[in-house]
Amino acid sequence: MKNTTQNLAKPRTRSRRARIAAWSGVGLLAAALAPAAALAVGEPIEIRVAYLDPGTGSLIIQAVVAVLAGAAVAITSYWQKIKTFFGRNSRNSDPSDTAPRDE
Amino acid sequence: MNDGTLGASFRDPSGFVFERDGIIYRQVNRSYAADYDLLMSSGLYEALVERGLLIAHEEVSIEPTGRGDAYRILRPRPVPFISYPYEWCFGELKDAALATLEIQRVALDFGMTLKDASAYNIQIDQGRPVFIDTLSFEAYEEGTPWVAWRQFCQHFLAPLALISYRDIGFGQLSRLYIDGVPLALARSLLPARAWLRIQLFLHIWVQAGSQRRFEGAASEDATAPKQRPVSRKNLDNLIAGLRSACASLDWKPEGTEWADYYEGDSYTDEGDEDKAAVVASHLDRIQPAEVWDLGANTGRFSRIASERGINTVSFDVDPACVERNYRAARSSKETRLLPLIMDLVNPSPALGWAHEERNSLAERSSADLVMALALIHHIAISNNVPLGRIASYLAHLARHLIIEFVPKSDPKVKILLATREDIFPDYTQAGFEEAFSSAFEILDAHPVKGSERTIYLMRRRD
Lengths: 103, 462
What we know:
Chain A is mostly helical. Chain A has helices at residues 2-40, 56-85. Chain B has 15 helices and 15 strands. The interface between A and B is large, with 50 and 73 residues.
């Protein structure tokens, strides 16, 4: 019985942590980027029907994700620049991090 | 199929792939004519082919199959071996993902977009990922979202994240889910700390949530939220975000059973050199055009073939070995070596609709010679496969065989037998020769110096 309780308790803790991490992410992002997202996401449109089902939920959220993803990339790149400016080594990048080789 | 259409080629109405007289062709249907012409006239085709990102093709004038409304018939540059995402190591999957995103980025600059982003559209050819589906491009219209976003995340981002955060074994999920790992599944499997990476949070957690929220919402339903336009700038952001997400994921090839094999090798240096020399002389004698090295570890003996200009597929069951093999091949820009993950006692099956979309390993057999070095004891003893069955399967794969017999007196076999009953009375050198003689003619038997092992060269009895 003891074992069962322990096994049940563990995932619950983990999922609570997951929720906290996720919602703090949402909170931070929303606070920082909501004005930008609101400006960037325009009026509803009809899109050309694709032969591949793009997924209703995926299409609905894509405009918002695109804005936030762009902002996150920009913030990361500014942060890297700041770190470089103050002489700290930017993270060692794996050769595979670069775009596909084009020799 | 009797008109030669390949079993995997039915999803896209733009055209299909067919085989005639051993040559692969791609038919472009009239419905795709405008997009095909744009691909060729916009400069996108040249830009991508020049960088090795898209397969080159030539337009040919042969009789169409009679299926569909043919606009053009293309003859793409052939790819020696077709491999699938569940056979790729982490590095191959990651490079394929980055190549797909780079293609989409370049396509947008030329006014086109990828209408699908399936991992099956990529092949690892000449040591690098190349996009093989010439009909995947369509004219881009400002404001439209990327319709392949979900597919890209399912085929690439989700498995890369699962491997990176959880376990290398999740690379095999794509064998189960032919259209990629469902994002809801990835979301439930990934640990909390994965969501601290904002791109993973957005592309997996948020997208999966939106899918669940709006599942089945009909567009006619006035209360359902509508698709919002995605500006060109934001589409670039989406691609940049995905790129950043994929590039930041990593997996270190260590801690698996075989990754350090050569460090604790079972050969003396003398035996090792002798083995390499005999393999080289057999390759020079047979002159195969394609070699499969089964149980290749990190590809040491595969390179004896690939360095002779022979297209060589280097299979191993251990993802860490395949990863090391691939990284070595990539850093030295090897073009003839293809490292792949393959469990020989459970090789890739035929998958998909009517078992025709993805071919089994045996269906893809195109090798002239198979190497099975330091392998047979793992199949015969660890997995209890009778020697005769091993012989007939190998005979099915290729005409020539270089195989190493490892006797029971060998230290490696002693380890395998240490913890179990020896139920292999036929596992002797004589028993091995007898079992293989029904399928093969033994051309040469060479005792390896400093060991009790023997290397055989055999030819299938046709």
